[in-house]
Amino acid sequence: MQIARTLDDLRHVLGAYCKPAFVPTMGNLHEGHIALIRKAKPLGDVTVASIFVNRLQFLPHEDFDSYPRTWDSDCAKLQAAGCDVLFAPTENELYPEPQTFKVHPPGALADILEGHFRPGFFVGVSTVVMKLFACVQPRVAVFGKKDYQQLMVIRRMVRQFALPIEIVAGETERAADGLALSSRNGYLSASERHEAVQLSLALKRMAAHAKPGTTDLAAIEAEAMNTLLSRGWKPDYMTVRRRTDLQAPQAGDPLVVLGAAKLGNTRLIDNLEF
Ligand code: PAF
Q: Which residues are catalytic?
């Protein structure tokens, strides 16, 4: 695997290829990321990953400084998965001057759910992804469904800016008990790790109740919030939405249930299409 630390290096390495398949990450890689690399591999003539912890998508009180930087094990995992090129710019390389031009996704999509609880998050994500796309110039990029709203924002951005990039979705990888794999799972204590599966169980119960076409989604959502609250979680949202735009569903819409909740100091998100 070749490692490019600068944009010049990256352009030099990628000059020989015409169809890069790209997986952007913030590092601290787990099997979920590696599954995205494996998905990307047959889709291009070179597989590129990036590792960049993007300050722009963290609020001041969030975990930017403590976000785990696990360079050696990340490189080993990427290499083993057959990643060809790793782009790992410094902050100074990617943002040599303050990034005052930003991508502002529409509020109807980006100020709800994650965007409501993490204001500015999708501006930060869209801006860095646009910039990484400009650096890597991929023809295909793979994003995990675990970050369901992020995937939707990126798809919409690519469509509206007519970027010549196919966005491919990777399924959420889960631990044996059903917990969605996430870099932040590493923050959980042993007892929290045991409890953490309750988020995906609550989403499954919501989907089972909403499936028969129940109209009282508010009751289903309130019950899930209360269950988590009673177990000591601090839920931000547990909600049933339509898949197309994450708005309140109408009869017959394909649905997704999404949740975000804090367990101790760790904020977990998950979702389930049904
Ligand atoms: O999903 C992530 O890890 C990040 O939001 C991304 C897409 C790499 C942008 O920083």
A: 33
